[in-house]
Design a protein that fits this description.
The structure holds two protein chains of two kinds.
Chain A lengths: L1 H19 L3 E9 L9 E4 L5 E3 L5 E6 L3 E8 L6 E7 L3 E3 L2 E3 L15 E5 L10 H5 L8 H5 L24 E5 L2 E3 L21 E7 L13 E7 L7 E7 L2 E9 L5 E11 L1 H6 L5 E18 L5 E18 L7 E21 L3 E21 L5 E2 L9 E19 L5 E18 L5 E22 L2 E12 L4 E15 L2 E12 L15 E14 L2 E21 L2 E22 L6 E15 L15 E11 L4 E10 L3 E7 L4 E8 L3 E10 L10 E10 L9 E4 L6 E4 L6 E10 L4 H7 L2
Parallel strand pairs in A: 1-7, 1-8, 10-13
Antiparallel strand pairs in A: 1-4, 2-3, 2-5, 5-6, 9-12, 10-11, 12-13, 14-15, 14-40, 15-16, 16-17, 17-18, 18-19, 19-20, 20-21, 20-22, 22-23, 23-24, 24-25, 25-26, 26-27, 27-28, 28-29, 29-30, 30-31, 31-32, 32-33, 33-36, 34-35, 36-37, 37-40, 38-39
Chain B lengths: L1 H30 L9 H18 L3 H20 L6 H18 L4 H17 L1 H22 L4 H13 L8 H17 L12 H14 L1
Helix pairs in contact in B: 1-2, 2-3, 3-4, 3-5, 4-5, 5-6, 7-8, 8-9
Classes of the chains: A mainly beta, B mainly alpha.
Amino acid sequence: MKNIFLLITVFLSGIYSQGILAQTIVKGLVKDGKGRPLAGVSIAIKDSYDGTISDSIGNYSFKTFEKGTQLIQFSAIGYKSMEQTIKIEGEFIISNIQLKEEISELTAVVISAGSFEASDRKRASAVLDPLDIVTTASANGDVTEALKTLPGAQQIGESEGLYVRGGTAAETKTFIDGTLVNNFFFSSVPNIAQFGRFSPFIFKGTVFSTGGYSALYGQALSSALILESIDLPEKTSANFGLSVIGGNIGWQQLVKKKNASWGINYSYTNLAPAFSIIKQKQDYSQAPLFHNIDGNFRIKTSKTGILKYYGYFSSNKLAFTTPSLDSLGYLDQFALKNTNHYHNLFWKETLPKRWKISVGISYSNNKDHISSEMEDVNKSKVLLSGLEFKNFKVNTDGNYLNGKIVLEKKLKGLSAFRFGSEYNYGKDHSTYTDYNLQQFPSSLTQSTTAIFGEGDIYATNDLAIKGGLRLEHSSIIDKTNLAPRFSLAYKLSKGTQASFAYGIFYQTPETKYLPSPVALSFMRADHYILQFQKVINQQSFRVEAFYKKYHDLQKTGIINFRPTAINNSGFGEAKGFEFFWRDKKTFKNFDYWISYSFLDTKRDFLNFPYAITPNFAARHTASVILKKFVTKLKTQFNGAYNFSSGRPYYNIVYDGSQYKFSDKGTIPDYHNFSFSINFLPSIGKKDAKAFAVYVLQISNIFNLRQVYGYQYSYNGFRKQEITPSSRMFIFLGAFISLGVDRSEDVINNSL
Amino acid sequence: MKKMFLLLAVVSISLHGFSQNEKYVKAMEQLVPAVDTTHSVQGLLDLSAAFERIANAEKTQWLPFYYAALCQVNLGNMYYVQGQADKMDPLMDKAESLLNKATALENNNSEIYCLTKMYNSGRMMVDPMSRYMSYGIAAADALAKAKSLNPENPRVYLLEGQDKYYTPEQYGGSKSEAKQLFEEAKKKFESFKPADSIAPTWGMGQLNYFLSLQKGQE
């Protein structure tokens, strides 16, 4: 028995003897890939408590009781972890190491030339986020209006769309979840810019590329607006709103398991009451009236996958008269009825082995019924001799199907390659009915098929290269193109980077000038963009210079009384530079940005007699946006100033043999001041059931005269300014959301 | 004799096992008090690394992962106070991975949810305007969950009090309500019995700071 206790004692002392035996000091020096000492590196012996971190000059030293062959691990944020086998014996041993930088999203350079990203990503440096769009005073809650405060876009008020760096609105294409959107704006009305159809609240991310964009997108000579729809909502909620122009009601349901949601919204907009107070230039017999319904569902198909559907239906109409320029004492009447529906289904999933797939498909239908006629002062229809052509009707019916599939494989670090295919189909049918009821139907079916591949290579955290190729075939012109894209970004220092982008961009001639009696080819633009950007702690500055060369633009002539593409002999170029500065830091609760664009462009296209600066290109464009939140008043004050130097205007007439100018000049400079107030009274109210936002918005607050251009009588003898429908416009609304008052939590936690 | 050897074997195994656990507890006991008293960049990084080494060696203990993450979050908050919010994201990345490991080993723990709240608040502070909808709500949810799991956890009231204290009155902040919460926290601290010698007890230092601030105002 005694022996046994002895045995136990020996045994136990054996266990502890390790501790009594000599310790070994492990020490060394840690450097980075460039040989600079690295501080804060964690050093540990595997499966032991022993270790330390390196000091400010990269040295480390620690004691250990471990013996024999051990694995020593080195790890630090932003670096690849490394292991070394060491044999621990004697009093001390030395283990030096060099750690390689790990390429990560947080530290790597971003390929940013040509694009503004507005998203809620982790990266703190997003230029504009979705909330910015709805609080920009001059934007009236419209996505594209907000983007017009960024450099690159023109302040065009007489028609909708983004006119980017000397390009037309048709040269900008919009994509939702990867697929093309065909009628992003409400149908055009003469001399009145229309809004986008979609609420900014359905998008979580916005990338506004003013050039040099990726091979994943095509058919846009100038610009791509890439919108990403929201995922599951935070909570079930009911919403309603009431404003001077209408009301809306909606329901959004998040299922209990929080893995799926659905929602439906209806909005009614009627501008009649507002127009009865705010005098319009047009005399409306039918003030703009809109019924919009949208619905959605979103289902998490797995931990990493989501299936999203968004559907939209709109029915709207308007009719008005304006005094006719063609025959004094008579009126021009314009009436429009539009129905549109849009369906988008999108699925994305992460696959094994670092593959990702995303598939999107969208279908839309758009119907316009347009009627134009001349009326006498009593608003009775008249047929004036020589002006019979002003009485007509056009019915259009367009069906569009767009699909896209993208596969992505992540390689080492952030490097990746992706490839896929896009298919766009459109069938436009229109019937033109002339004054004596003769009908001229026409149909146009076309499709564009594309395949594309793209690679991102991150050589280090400081250098990224993106290269891509896009192959497209257009059925209507039966031509194929191959477009290379290339961009590069280099990090100069923390938060500072320089980028370059180059690409060739093709676009099929515009449908409204087709069909053509001759064989046409793609229009082409080459982009060269150089950018410098500095983003540090809530402040961003960027300057960009660009050169754009246009080839093969469509020229038009009059065939069967309508402008028709006749060849691709047009050309042009655009060059300029842009500044952007945004600061959320200097003043508390105060956010502002300033943008300036300089543009020098000339082109010969459509019916231009020769290369001229087009009427949609101002030399200088600038915006100043201010947002101030006053905590005591629970109110946000937003101001906006938009400026554009006088654009040229032209009246181009056909003299029987050629096009020539009958008049030209420069419109006055454009200034616009807008102001809005958002009052959020429910903020911070304990257990508030409803969350309310009251909005007052005043556009053109100083009631300035704004001129967008001139319109001419048919014979060219009379001209008239194109101006906004009213100078000042005032919007007042209340929006209430039930069941989602998280504002208190939200603000509590922001501190 | 055979029996004796068996006994010996059992004893030695259990002793050996115990010694391993004792080694763990001893190492932790040395480090845990430092959580409340370390306020330097190097100190917090050191401490976090020490906890992480223990965590990686032990593999099945959630506490060292929890403390390692806590040090990262505390360091992030320190940077925030110094106006260096741009330095927070890398720390929060690290905290997130540590926190995930702790959560994988121990779920439904009030202390882990308190830390999850602090982590999410830290993320949000980098860019409150664009992050409140995601991280702000996640933070509030985590704190509510922490309270429901253990209403006696004093750190829940300390965190609630801090939120109330720093929030402007217009948003539902209130110095007097904060005071009540701090006093509630104090009571909870006094009656709080940690599960063992290395369970979280931190917070008294911060609480005393807030209580002294309020004294100054009266």
